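Hello support,

Our group uses your service weekly, and this is the first time we've seen a run hang past the timeout. The protein is Putative kunitz. I'm not sure whether the cause is the sequence or the server load. Input pasted verbatim:
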Amino acid sequence: MFIEVAWILVTAATVSGSSSTSCQSDTIVNVCSLDPDMGDGERTALDYFYDWRTDKCISMYFGFSGKEYGEENRFFNEEQCNSKCRNVKSECFEEPVNVGGKGDIEKWKYNDASSKCVPFRWKQGRRKDTNTFGSLKDCIERCRKPDLGLCAYKFQTKCKHGDDLYIWYDNATQECKILPPHHCPTHGNAFYTFRQCYQRCGRFVENKCKLPIQNMSFCATPQSRYGYNTKTKRCEKFLGCEDSGNNYPTPKACWKTCANNTENPCVQPPDYTLSGPIFWKKRYYYDIKRHKCVQKNLPRGRVTGKSNLFKKREECKKTCMATYVPEPDWL
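Update from on-call engineer: The timeout came from a worker crash unrelated to the input. Re-ran successfully.
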């Protein structure tokens, strides 16, 4: 868990008042710090919960729990969840009401899906617009910095943080880095591992292909997903749920997003011009649409090793249909 986690939870409870009293005692429970209770029976209610690992409100199907809203980490909608557990103004998650005027002025709004302030043309209507800012700076100060949370903070210099090795998120370079000696973390931007650092701050990294393959959030029903492994230079299958990390629903989406401009054979068209009788040479190519290694009988047996053609099916599968092998938690 990341450093100063107590500071984070106390701040969340102080800002939002998101706590409840246990019916078995007088202990005040901060529901935002709890993992969600998925409930019993069939999960048919689409509600939201606050994921303290990523500081984000996430939708999930719940079953019956017998508790009232506010007594557990479960909320009726995203706005209610954000207002309870996050120190970000509700306007930052709304779409501007851009109607009723004839103006054409550049304004800025916060896109919480991409965690960016983006420009748009404002019609200057009479209705009060939410999530509408006159400048990029104003949008960043009002929405992006609060959304970044602890990921926005730098470190202090000329101080000692003891013998522990910490990782911190550098928002300028969008990377998790080892905290240098004689530097101290501020406001909780310190983690024990790179995995924890990217889990908390990875959603602010624009190039998702550079992120490690990992589940960024709580996952109720794992499914086959695909992530790009920067070490092996290939897309690999893993069990997870849709989230804001290096995570794609299909192998084609992964390959086309992360390796489309490379010389990887898996994204190239099949390297053959014709196929023939069974006594010709058996060769294999990767079909990116079907995620399958397909046999072809070719008049030539030569394989260059740089194109989408393989001597053996196993070689094709190893190159283009690999399964991710989880690494131990690393520094």
